[in-house]
Specification:
This protein is mainly β and 689 residues long. The protein is built from one helix and 59 strands. InterPro entries: FN3_dom, FN3_sf, Ig-like_dom, Ig-like_dom_sf, Ig-like_fold, Ig_I-set, Ig_sub, Ig_sub2.
């Protein structure tokens, strides 16, 4: 680390010191054994740069102070006291010391065991016996011992605390007893497993992990699944509770996945970590040396009596640095130094660029400034200085100046200037902001046209350079004799020639400009006159009047029926007389008729487009000629040959020919004229099928 420099009269002094990581100079014994109820104190002496923090762990979990655990760190000695030890306190403990420079740890094992009395089994000889006999003492009797019975026999005793074994070796009738106590075996585990590493090509690398578990522990290292052995390339180290691989000089081929496997009598475990080799750090092959200044075009060295001076011409930032003056004579030499700082005015490393946006878009005018701090940045527009507001934000961070508009409008059009100033001078950069009109359309509209007319859809787009296309019910329309497209400046038109019912639908104009898209939609409804009314008949007659009734037309032509037109004609005349043109329901009584006169009647439905075709009633006792049409979903057939003349009151019998036409007589009386109702086309088809 380096503290601030101390300076006096142009001289500067810099002090350097380095941090020393913690190191244990004294650690407890590897294994400690106590009886239940006893206490055990572990002491570790640590050196290193303060402040040092001490942490205690048991089986990988950090220990906190309790009634059973007391901790202290005084005079560089870390202590852990296990009070009133119990069997559950057995295990592997380790102490870790940390400071800013690094960390170090050491481990120790505590065993809490009770007293176990074990008596060695005795070997005796007995006749006709070769089995275990139950008794207060376990024993093994070998009948007629032979030479091949020589060897080592093991007797094991186990309780809830621990286990012990007794070994007896039988050699030439000599019984030797040895009492061995077996230890509790703890499976290996990783306190600090391997981690992924990024190292520099050619550097020294140590791949290390901290372990715990009962010894002996075997360690196996692998790289990308291949076993690693200790040699010139890799140095395998196992010390205390650390295992590691050292690579003296890292090569690109050393990159890969490394794994470490631990094994002892209780089990095994494994961890892995990768190494990524980065490019080599840049080094100076040739270092700069101090140079002596000589008088020349850029500087002048002079001596005036006892004063010497150095004049620099046209100085720039590159002339900044520490200048030293050395004076020598036969008695020795002295020197002094001065630091020269060259300040420079602001300048733009990235200037403002012209910008064109659409109204409503966010805007960011940005430029980059360099120069000697402190630099003050201001923004100007033709009408004066620009200031921050809810819609305009001015920012200057790390040499980058920004003017941000949340939503551009026409009033924002103009030339913007960024001015940078410091104590040395100033600089400016300018650009023009142009705000295009936002492409817009009217709201959703519904237009109604009658059959045979021309429908025109018209909209205005801004700017006029916007590209437009037309769609009907989400399908693209192409220009044709039926559909005509017109573009004139900002005006866009779609003309539909000879409108038919099939032209009903939604029409959309899509405009694209500067990578943005907008659309508007209008609906076309095609209307026609209503269809013919059905089943016109005389319902009643009275003195000078006749009541008529009929059924509504099957089609209203796309517009609501607003009334019915009823006409009458004397059979002796050729002209029709209007009885009414505003019958509101499908029935009407015609008045003002002359006695002993014969009349014809016809009725049509009316909507706002006009009146539909008329349907006349048939006159009783009159002969008529008929033609028959057939209709299905595909259309209407050609007409049949003329049938007739037929008398309206003739009975025609059964229908034997598909082109015959029958009539329904609604009523027939000697006192009233019977009325005939012609079958509708649908009724006719059903009757003939």
């Amino acid at each position: 680390m380096c503290p601030p420099c101390c300076s006096s009269d142009g001289l500067s002094v810099t002090l350097f010191f380095s941090l020393v990581p913690p190191k244990f100079t004294q650690i407890p014994a590897r294994v400690s054994v106590v009886c239940p109820g006893q206490s055990k104190v572990f002491e570790c002496q640590v050196t290193g740069t303060p402040e040092i923090d001490i942490y205690w762990f048991k089986e990988g979990s950090e220990i906190s102070p309790t009634d059973h655990y007391k901790m202290a760190f005084v005079n560089s000695v870390a202590t852990l006291e296990v009070c009133g030890a119990e069997v559950k306190h057995s295990g592997l403990y380790y102490c870790e010391a940390r400071n800013e420079a690094g960390s170090e740890s050491c481990s120790m094992e505590l065993k809490v065991k009770g007293v176990l009395n074990v008596h060695c089994a005795r070997i005796t000889r007995a006749l006709n016996s070769k089995q275990w006999f139950p008794s207060n003492k376990d024993s093994l009797k070998i009948q007629a011992a032979q030479t091949e019975d020589e060897g080592e026999y093991v007797f094991e005793v186990v309780n809830y605390i621990s286990s012990c074994t007794c070994k007896v070796k039988l050699i030439s009738n000599l019984c030797l007893g040895v009492l061995l106590a077996t230890e509790q075996v703890i499976a290996p585990s990783f306190i600090k497993p391997l981690v992924d590493m990024h190292e520099i090509l050619g550097s020294f690398v140590q791949i290390c992990c901290k372990i715990s578990g009962s010894l002996p522990i075997s360690v196996e290292w692998k790289k990308d699944g291949t076993k690693i052995s200790s040699g010139l390339k890799h140095k395998l180290i196992q010390q205390d509770n650390s295992v590691s691989i050292e690579i003296e000089q890292l090569e690109r081929s050393d990159a890969g996945l490394y794994s470490c496997k631990l094994t002892n009598a209780a089990g095994s475990c494994e961890c892995s970590g990768s190494i990524v080799v980065k490019g080599q750090t840049l080094l100076f092959l040739t270092r700069l040396d101090d140079a002596e200044l000589m008088t020349g075009p850029t500087c002048l060295i002079g001596l005036d009596g006892l004063s010497c001076f150095l004049e620099l011409y046209s100085v720039g930032v590159t002339q900044s640095g520490v200048y030293s003056c050395q004076v020598s004579n036969d008695a020795g030499s002295v020197h002094c130094s001065a630091n020269l700082t060259v300040k420079e005015p602001p300048y733009f490393t990235e200037s403002l660029e012209p910008m064109e946006v659409t109204a409503g878009d966010a805007v960011c005018l940005k430029c980059q400034v360099a120069g000697t701090p402190e630099i003050k940045v201001s923004w100007f527009k033709a009408d004066g200085k620009v200031r921050s507001s809810p819609t305009c934000k001015l920012e200057y961070t790390k040499g980058v100046a920004c003017l941000k508009l949340s939503k551009a409008t026409k009033s924002d059009i103009g030339e913007y200037t960024c001015k940078a100033e410091n104590r040395i001078g100033s600089a400016s950069s300018s650009c023009r902001l142009n705000v295009l009109g936002k492409t817009s359309f009217p709201e959703y509209c519904v237009y109604t046209f009658s059959i045979g007319s021309s429908a025109v859809f018209e909209c205005e787009v801004s700017p006029s350079t916007a590209v437009t296309s037309w769609m009907k019910d989400d399908s693209n329309l192409r220009e044709s004799p039926k559909h005509k497209f017109t573009s004139d400046g900002k005006d866009r038109k779609l003309n539909i020639i000879d409108v038919q019912l099939s032209d009903t639908g939604e029409y959309t104009c899509v405009a694209k400009n500067a990578g943005k898209e907008i659309s508007c939609t209008a609906k076309l409804i095609v209307e026609d006159v209503p269809g013919p009314v059905k089943n016109l008949q005389v319902t009643d007659t009275a003195d000078g009047e006749i009541s008529l009734a009929w059924e509504e037309p099957e089609s209203d032509g796309g517009s609501k029926v607003i009334g019915y037109v009823v006409e009458r004609r004397d059979e002796k005349r050729k002209t029709w007389t209007l009885a009414t043109d505003h019958a509101e329901s499908p029935e009407y009584t015609v008045t003002g008729l002359q006695k002993e006169s014969k009349y014809l009647f016809r009725v049509c439905a009316r909507n706002r487009v006009g009146s539909g075709p008329t349907v006349s009633g048939l006159k009783y006792g009159t002969k008529y000629n008929y033609r028959v049409f057939a209709e299905n979903a595909a259309g209407v057939s050609e007409p049949s040959n003329i049938i007739g003349p037929l008398l309206a009151d003739d009975p025609h019998g059964e229908i034997n020919d598909v082109f015959s036409l029958g009539f329904c007589i609604s009523s027939q009386s000697s006192t009233k004229a019977g009325t005939l109702t012609p079958l509708s086309l649908l009724q006719l088809v059903q009757a003939l099928t």
